[in-house]
Design brief:
170 residues, globular, two-stranded antiparallel ribbon, Peptide Deformylase, single chain, 3 helices
Length: 170
């Protein structure tokens, strides 16, 4: 089932999410719904707080053409970050139609629990590394615009707030 995506500014997007203590069927269903919502949007990643759930859960799939490679992560955490940096133009489903360049570590090792309850660890690079860091940021109440200067961040927030008001009226 498709979920509604929260639009910035929304206080829930700035909250630190709680760890998932145990995997339940409800959480597995939420992960499937989030994947469906992400693909429908369309996007390459989605974090639980973006659909109003303050739990440490993200979904992502950076394959834009060909066979999808969805990844579901409960309690993800960056274990190692490279000193090398990459700059990507990032966007966010919670800040529609706005993009800015963000510099992050180019390679990261991430640990998480998969939907079967098994611990996982994997190295990510390129777009996958950027995406997983962006989504984990959501779990910590950080948006990509928080990496920008105050003027640009304020401008993007105002534009997003205006879009949010317009959508509410429609």
């Amino acid at each position: 089932m498709l979920k509604s995506i929260l639009i910035h500014p929304d206080p829930r997007l700035k909250k630190i999410c709680d760890p998932v203590p145990d995997l339940s069927d409800d959480l597995r269903l939420l992960a499937k719904d989030m994947q469906q919502t992400m693909y429908d949007a369309p996007g390459i990643g989605l974090a639980a707080p973006q659909v109003g759930v303050l739990s440490r859960l993200i979904v992502m799939d950076c394959i834009k053409e060909g066979e999808p490679e969805p990844v579901v992560m409960f309690n993800p955490e960056v274990l190692l970050s490279s000193e090398d940096k990459n700059t990507y133009e990032e966007g966010c489903l919670s800040i529609p139609d706005q993009f800015a360049e963000v510099t992050r570590p180019s390679d990261v090792r991430v640990g998480w629990i998969d939907e079967n309850g098994n611990p996982q660890e994997k190295d990510f690079d390129g777009l996958w590394a950027t995406c997983v860091q962006h989504e984990i940021d959501h779990l910590n109440g950080t948006l990509f615009i928080d990496y920008l200067g105050p003027m640009k961040r304020q401008m993007m927030t105002r534009k997003s707030a205006k879009m949010k008001r317009e959508r509410a009226r429609a």
